[in-house]
Amino acid sequence: MNKFYGTKLIAAKPMTRAEYNAFRGWELPNNENGGDEGYLVEYLDGGKPNVEGYAGYVSWSPKEQFENAYQPTDAMSFGHAILAARAGAKIARAGWNGKNMFVALMPALKLPPFNSQEPGAKVNDRTAKFIGEDTPLDSQPYFAMKTATGAWQPGWLASQNDMLANDWQIVD
Questions:
Q1: What strands lie across the sheet with 57-62, from one edge to the other?
Q2: Which residue from 36, 103, 122, 151 has the highest number of Cβ atoms inside 10 Å of its Cβ?
């Protein structure tokens, strides 16, 4: 078999193996320990719902495997925060002093030249001044920060402290 490493956004709550079997309306097999600690897991990023009342696929995970695989969304590593940003989440550090600060990953943007006759968005005059009126815009993805003063700062770069911190969180 090939090996894989994955990260997904889930909802979970503590539940023993016996409680999970009762929740699903199943009988606990004789060879399983109903007292095993674990978690009811709902996968929020796809998968056909398999339990009424839940929007995602529901399963059970043993406690040790669960806690080794998942981090709370308010105490993530920078690597997990980047993956969340790539999935469209706004991220921030709990240790930042400013209120309402966050970082977002801005997607690539391609626009026709300023002097294009194409309908819709195109390079604005401010940008055309630097790249030329006949040049289309090919902007690559980048991180931008909403600062404590409410300003939008494109091109945000993480500090060493940010990269090594484990207090990253997904913010609304």
A1: 10-14, 38-43, 57-62
A2: 103
Average pLDDT on 10-33 reads 96
The enclosing H or E element of 42 equals strand 38-43
Distance of alpha carbon 4 from alpha carbon 64, whole angstroms:
19
Q: How many CB atoms lie within 10 A of CB 140?
A: 9
More confident residue, 163 or 87: 163
Q: Do 116 and 109 meet the contact criterion of CB atoms below 8 Å apart? A: no
Q: Is residue 153 within 8 Å of 144, Cβ to Cβ?
A: yes
Which amino acid does the sequence have at 88?
A: G
User: CA-to-CA distance for 19 and 55, rounded, in angstroms?
Assistant: 20
Give the global pTM.
0.74
What is the per-residue pLDDT across 111-168, written as a single tens digit (0 to 9) for each?
Answer: 999 999 989 999 999 999 999 999 999 999 999 999 999 999 999 999 999 999 999 9
